[in-house]
Amino acid sequence: MLLHITTSEGVPIYMQIVTQIKHLVASGRLSEGDELLPIRALAEQLVVNPNTVARAYRELEMAGVVEKRRTAGTYVSGAGSPLARGEQARILTERIDALVIEAQHMSFSTDELIEMIRARADHLQPKATDSSKEPRP
Amino acid sequence: MTPIIELCNVTRSFGAKFALNDINLTLEKGTVLGLVGENGSGKTTLIKHVLGLLKPDRGSVSVFGIDPVIDPVPVLAQIGYLSEEDILPSWMRIRELQRYMQGFYPTWDQEYADQLVREFGLDREAKLMGLSKGQRARAGLMTALAYRPQLLLLDEPSSGLDPIVRRDILGAIVRTIADEGRTVLFSSHLLGEVDRVADRVAMIQNGSILFCENLDGLKEIHLELTVIFPQPRPVRPRFDGAIAAEGDGKEWSVLFKGTLDQARVVVEAQGATIAEHRPANLDEIFVGYARPTGGAN
User: Fold this and answer.
1) In whole numbers, what is the pLDDT of chain B averaged over residues?
2) Most A-contacting residue of B167, B173, B197 (CB-CB within 10 A), to test interface
3) Beta strand pairing status for B242-257 and B222-233?
4) Do β-strands B5-14 and B58-63 pair in parallel, antiparallel, or remain unpaired?
């Protein structure tokens, strides 16, 4: 579980932790039943206030992404998977918004943009399947 | 519950100059307060009042419910203090420093002190004067932590130190908070560090507190906007909620206090549009308040 905290964007740190853990769950790098680092360990690893990590874990718990178990510890919950699709869509929507705005600034039409996306997808298609089969170097 | 630190209407002047002007500040147990402000704004003077090293001209200071000037011993016994200045006796070896400090602090934990010496890579036989600036700072941190103080006071602890030592200091703050909710007050001009470890931020300028807010809340109510005007503007735009504006011609970046909807209303009222917006980071908030240029009045 590798998270990256930045202080240059103005996004509250607890929010960065929430978003990145949701992202890890949505992308399958964290799966149901995986244990999250204890609050203190993650705080020390990221060098952030433990209260901030605790707040992030509370938000994730309320969103149903993780659950606390009686034996202490926070685990990725089973309810994470139905939520994942919505989260995946949210992540993509954010990227698309940025792209659309950039395209508008450069006076590209939406159709042109869609055409470019299709061309890139075709271009990347064979590579994408290769890399999923072969282990990374 | 009694707050750990309580300053009420504290005023202190040196000659004709107000060093602290009617300061009110409360720090509850278990919180980390980052104190920010330009050099000479009053950060160190404020911390010295908490330590009881300075007496206010007016107002009152209470630490653990005690006046640190009248009754310094029980206050100082529970405060871990590290300042930018190098105040440790430089002729001592690390192990001598440990024994010396142990004499002052009944709660000194030698096992923990040795653990910190190992973690910081300090040599118990080394003399302080022979250490690098970073190692001396680590030695200072070791002595400030080893008696497990209830309150950690750090005055520009990472000033002039390399990133590795700064990380040790921040890591120590993080562990201190994780240990049974101890309380930390630290001043720093490295806002990225404040951002990482503080629960609350107080900004002090010319001896007055400009704001003392929950860090997440502070970031949620400040936006960094890029505002575009249809025609170049010869003068800085001013509108309600704008703390500061920088730029020239058509494009201005504005620190705005309020919601995006509120920003849209005031910006569009001037015939301009918001091209970009994002939450402001602590640097932008700090600079904006230190040099306010955008207000309505």
Assistant:
1) 90
2) B197
3) antiparallel
4) antiparallel
pLDDT, tens only, B176-197? 877 767 899 999 988 989 999 9
Q: Based on the domain organization, do A126 and A88 belong to the same domain?
A: yes
Its domain, for residue A49, covers 13-80
Signed CA dihedral, B99, B105, B111, B117: sign only: negative
- Least Cα separation, residue B14 to chain A (angstroms): 36
Q: What's the per-residue H, E or C state across B12-36?
A: EEECCEEEEEEEEEEECCCCEEEEE
Same domain for A92 and A74: no
| Per-residue model confidence as pLDDT tens digits over B198-248 | 999 999 999 999 999 999 889 889 999 999 999 998 888 888 889 999 888
| Cβ neighbours, 10 Å, residue A23 | 17
pLDDT digits (tens, 9 = 90+) for A9-52: 888 999 999 999 988 888 788 888 888 999 989 999 999 999 99
Instruction: Give the ipTM of the model, two decimals please.
Output: 0.80
B216, B253, B255, B256: best to mutate for the A interface, most A CBs within 10 A: B216
Do A17 and A76 fall within a single domain? yes
Both A17 and A74 in one domain: the answer is yes
B218: nearest CA in chain A?
A12
pTM of the model: 0.82
Could you say which of B178, B195, B282 has the minimum Cβ distance to residue A40?
B178
* A108 assigned to some structural domain: yes
Q: What is the pLDDT of residues B85-118, one digit of tens each?
A: 777 888 999 999 999 999 989 999 999 999 999 9
